[in-house]
Amino acid sequence: MNWPAASFDWNQARAFLATAELGSLSAAARELGQTQPTLGRQVAALEDQLGVALFDRAGRGLILTEAGRELLSHVREMAEAAARVPLTASGQSQALRGTVGITASDVFSVTLLPPIIAELSRIAPEIEIEVVASNDLRDLSRREADIAIRHVRPTEPALTARLLGEGTGHLYAAPAYLDRRGRPASRSDLATHDFVGFLDVNRMGRTLGEFGIPVAARNIRYRTDNGLAMWEMVRAGLGIGVMTADLGLTTPDVELLFPREVAFRYPIWLVTHRELHSARRIRVVYDHLAQAITTHLRRIEARSPAG
């Protein structure tokens, strides 16, 4: 190994990478939790060590020089390698204790995970669980979570995934809304109704259209980025909403529309990082989730009127 080359200062490289990706010292300093002068000194020290200028100033921002662009790809590789170190170390741990982070949508985190975690706590009481309730895809490679429950298949080669099955969703509305606006007799009647949905109304309209639900963006009058808030607006009588059978079938104050039809189906993937899959505590939680969710899906399917 070339030990003189291995003396390369990672803190300086990280300061350069953050500045290059965020475009300014101030933004990079906030991201890394440092002061701007400290970060500036680290970047300057790296330039002195390499004997090249890495940035040109452009107003308040910074632009990479040719040397900076050439260095950037190598430093990104260093960052990816550094991120794999704790993953590999965690993957070798065979202790049935420690923390496991699970990320899932807000609806799944509330309706699905608590009883599953309660059962897990009896099986492995020394494992601590952190639930990251988010509708955004969290980066498992950066340890934003150890295990993810997703509705899309991961494409990253470093991740491993298991398809657990399909969930189902239906259309629901509060009786007060239906008494006021009328109960749709067919899907074509939905075009005249108000809907509660997510913020990206165009995307939601396209998605519903793919399932034969004719909803224009203008009909989605009440919007949110939170699935539970959306559901509460449906319960309050603001309009029709789509919801997973997990929550819809256990909410008594809403009315199921078209009970013999499934409004939509979605895959459920259980995902983790390949390096973590061999850690005993990750494996135990992963396998427990897989079995519990599969059983849950079968139970919901049996209860569904369209099942």
Automatic annotation (TrEMBL):
Coiled-coil region: none
Pfam families on file: HTH_1 (PF00126), LysR_substrate (PF03466)
Record keywords: DNA-binding, Transcription, Transcription regulation
GO molecular function terms listed in the Swiss-Prot or TrEMBL record: DNA-binding transcription factor activity; sequence-specific DNA binding
Domain HTH lysR-type: 8-65
Domain of life: Bacteria
Keyword DNA-binding included in the entry's annotation: yes
Cited InterPro entries: LysR-type_TF_proteobact-type, LysR_HTH_N, LysR_subst-bd, WH-like_DNA-bd_sf, WH_DNA-bd_sf
One BP annotation, GO: DNA-templated transcription
Family: Belongs to the LysR transcriptional regulatory family.
PANTHER family xrefs: HTH-TYPE TRANSCRIPTIONAL REGULATOR (PTHR30537), TRANSCRIPTIONAL REGULATORY PROTEIN (PTHR30537:SF3)
This protein's name: Transcriptional regulator, LysR family protein
Organism the protein comes from: Pseudooceanicola batsensis (strain ATCC BAA-863 / DSM 15984 / KCTC 12145 / HTCC2597) (Oceanicola batsensis)
